[in-house]
Amino acid sequence: MSNVIFAKNAIRDLATKAKETVANESLSTAQKKRILDDIDVDLKTHAATVELHKSAQRLMGGGESLESGYGYGVETGRAVKGLATPSLSLAPDEQQGLFLAAKSGQNLTLHLKDAASSDLARTQLPAQFIGLVDRKFEPSRILDHIPSTTMAGPSVEWITHTANTVALPSPVITLGTAASGGTFAAGDYFWKLTATNSGGETVGSNELTATLTASQKQPINWTAVTGANGYRLYRGIAAGAENVLVAVISDGTTATYTDLGGAGTSATVPTVDRTAGAATVHAGGQMPETSLTPVQTILTAKKLGIFTTVVDEMLQDFPTFAGYTQVELQRQITDAENWQLLNGDGTGDNLLGLLNTPSTLSRVKGSGDAALDVISAGISDLRTGPSYCEPDVIVINPTTWNTIRTAKNSLGNYILGDPGQSTVSEVWGVPVVQTSQMLPGTVVLANLEMGAQAFVREGITLAMTNSSDNDFTNGKVKIRATERLCLGVSRPTAINILTGF
Fold this sequence. Notes:
Number of strands: 23
Structural class: alpha+beta
Radius of gyration: 28 Å
CATH superfamily of the domain at 142-160 and 298-499: hypothetical protein PF0899 domain
Helix content: 25-40%
Strand content: 25-35%
Shape: globular
Pfam families: Phage_capsid
Distance between the termini: 55 Å
Number of helices: 11
Subcellular location: Virion
Mean pLDDT: 75
InterPro entries: Phage_capsid (IPR024455), Phage_capsid-like_C (IPR054612)
């Protein structure tokens, strides 16, 4: 028994050491990797001792161990990849008590805190221990890479902003008469214009719309803005969603432009007017004043849910099955969450995911372009674009990542390093997050710390009851998992969608 106690204490000490190593900013990434690799070896040795003891207990008891599936997973290092260790830990007698209470007709709710809402010090394993035994079907939670906070209500006020320091009035536009000679497809189109000078760009002008027939072109006219040295024309196919930069005009005296319907580039019309920029100020002198005009958006939390029905005998005869069921339900919630955060279209009960958020940046990989070159160019887009940010994550499908990771040079060597060495988890210094919920061939390159925030109204919650329909008389129990959250994107231009991989 003393060996088992020593092993369990050692596992806890190693977890603390690993956490301190990750937090130690004086160590390089390579040094941290070497230390964590050594910890991994020691952890598996101690975990084997604990496993041997548990096997002996099962043999002597003639059946399965009644330990909590979660507690067993933590002690042996088999944490579910991508999921924090739940804050619920039940002894065998407590599990039986809950089961008997459910059978007596009581409605029970078991609350489990997930990675987005848990107390890090008490309930969540250090990141390096998540997935020591890699379960390939388990998802990585991209939510872990989005700053999250609990909400005070079912919706939240959000400010979308792009700043400018131009100190110019916005132009006012009018539409000329549409004529043939363009490349537009038939449909409704919307335009806004901004003025520019050395201080930046104004907010958008008044919005105008026109219904064009195929192959038409549309003239846009305005009065030249005093002090402007140029203009930027934006177009969209929905009101308030001009997300295509049609033209960059470098002459401040220009007062007309004809939009032929070209593809343009992805861009965002500034929506915050800063009427003055910071400047040097003489001692005692008047400082420039800036007034901000934010755009308020209300986000409503959306609910994810799944349930399953199990028979009493499964819970009575195989207590660890309850733990497996809970983990499986959480896995399915995580899959749905990742899909919504990435691909949700914002209609009905769906979130508006990153891939469908208006006004994000975009870049297409050409047939002759190297994948790593396109990612590097995408990083430059973020660094020099409207948000002036460095990406903090690359979200990618495992299939797409495998293609990039196995690329070779002309000598047959792997570009991203020898496969016998440590696994590459960064590209150009940006962490890579793999999830099968990302469509193959598409990559999200973003600064999610700056650009997005997930609001978790209610973390993953498990509930069980036998009072539904005829469950009580049929000897069945329903177990349900739910989560409520919403996603706010405050800086769409901090997100770059790369396609064509």
